[in-house]
Amino acid sequence: MAAPDGFRSDAKRHDDIYRGLLRHALVRLTFLYFIPLLLLTLFFHLQYRLVVRDADHSHRELLAYHQAAMLEMYLGDRLLNLTDLTDDPRSLLEPHRDDLETHLADLQSVSEAFIDLSVLDGSGRVLAYAGPLPFLQKQNYRGEAWFTRLVAGASSHVITDVYLGFREEPHFTMALKLEPRGETRILRAVVSPEIARAQMDAQVVEIEEPGGGLLANIATNIWLFSALFCLIGGLVIWLQARWVAQQQYEAQIKERQLNRQLGQAAKLALVGELAAGIAHEINNPLAVVSEKAGLVKDLLDPRFGKNPTSEQLRDHLGIIEKAVFRCTDITRQLLGFVRQRDVELKEKDVHVEIDDLVHGLLSSELEVGEITVLKKYDPDLPAIITDHGQLRQVVLNLLKNAADSITGPGTITIATKKLGDRFTLTVRDTGHGMTPEALELVFMPFFTTKAPGKGTGLGLSVSYGIIEGLGGHMAVHSAPNEGSMFTVELPLKR
């Protein structure tokens, strides 16, 4: 069995309200909690990366310093090995290849890093050479930077950085300057960087990365941790948003129920104020019914010998029927106003609604109070789509308050005007007006300027809430002894 259209409409409206609250809660909680936490996570992540980078840089600096110190110590040891060959400087005056071969073998027995050995004179000429590259015997080292620095400098030895030289291969050069019998002799040896590195690696104690590699592992997985944190945080935010939305939804439903009850109470209070006028309005047609019924009864009584015609009876019965219909119409309007309904959007002419109130529920009160109603309707105003039950309650409240504020003959002016996709309804009276203090409290619940027992103070408060709920605004302008003007602005389509 299909659900009624009204039920589906209410369910859809409630779903829309809940989804709107859920979106609002998600956005609010995301901006208040999740985004700051995410930014904080990113901040700590960046700070951590900086710490890791600095720690890695410091580690590399320490490693480089340690390796440089080891290399300097290693080359210093090789220089001492080379210095041991200079115990008899006179043997370098006339060096022989065989002697150098023996010395090279001795050096290699200490360290395999020694490649060759040679003796040079002060001009850079090779006097003797021992090693795997015989063509170096014919080279002259006068133009080499290390030779120039050694000959011209005050130091008696030199150790170069790795360079290619005549052999076109990377190598260290270390040399000693000797001056036996006043002649300059250079004892030169070449050290292999590859062999030197292998020998140092066998002796160097490895420096561990700071934190035993923990920082590197965490740095590798930091995005995984961040993603996991975001997923958990998002789940928490989602659950929290659903809980908040549910609480707000239930609070709004309760608030709407209370507002409906308050509006219904205001309706009943207004009906109580209208009771005297309505009683008078009903008594008039009832008196006509009583009079015509008695007349028909007399016409039909044989004692009076009237013998009325059917046409005469039909005229009297028509008057009775018209009076009964008048009573029925009044009670229908009254019950229609009092009956509590759900929000119901329909297209109706607002001018017809106003006329129905002026010439219906309020007609007797306006007539007794000698109040004239002027209508200034905008002819371009189309039919509006809104909850006309609620709008009738607002208009009736405004008209009733305007009538109550007038003492003696007065005027109520009702005006409408189309403004784009909205319209305004203005109710102006020539009553006693309100003070500035009263204006500040006019829309507060239970505030009234009427005499005790004449009003509940709920009418304008409920009307203000109804207009706001219909997507409009209500404003008031008033001054003592200058009357009041209430303006309602509403959309043409709710």
Which helices and strands, and how do they pair?
Blueprint: H1 5-83, H2 97-110, E1 114-121, E2 126-130, H3 145-152, E3 157-159, E4 172-178, E5 185-191, H4 193-203, H5 214-300, H6 310-338, E6 345-348, H7 350-358, H8 363-368, E7 371-376, E8 384-387, H9 388-404, E9 410-419, E10 422-429, H10 436-441, H11 459-469, E11 473-478, E12 484-491
Parallel strand pairs: 7-9
Antiparallel strand pairs: 1-2, 1-5, 3-4, 4-5, 6-8, 9-10, 10-12, 11-12
| Relative strand content | 15-25%
**SS elements, strand count:** 12
Mean pLDDT: 78
So what's the overall shape? rod-shaped
Distance between the termini: 30 Å
Largest sheet: 5 strands, antiparallel
- Low-pLDDT residue intervals, each spanning 5 or more residues: 1-8
Tally of alpha and pi helices = 11
Order of helices and strands: HHEEHEEEHHHEHHEEHEEHHEE
Helix content: 55-70%
Total domain count: 3
The radius of gyration is 56 Å
Order the strands across the largest sheet as they lie in space.
2-1-5-4-3
**What structural class results from the helix and strand content?**
alpha+beta
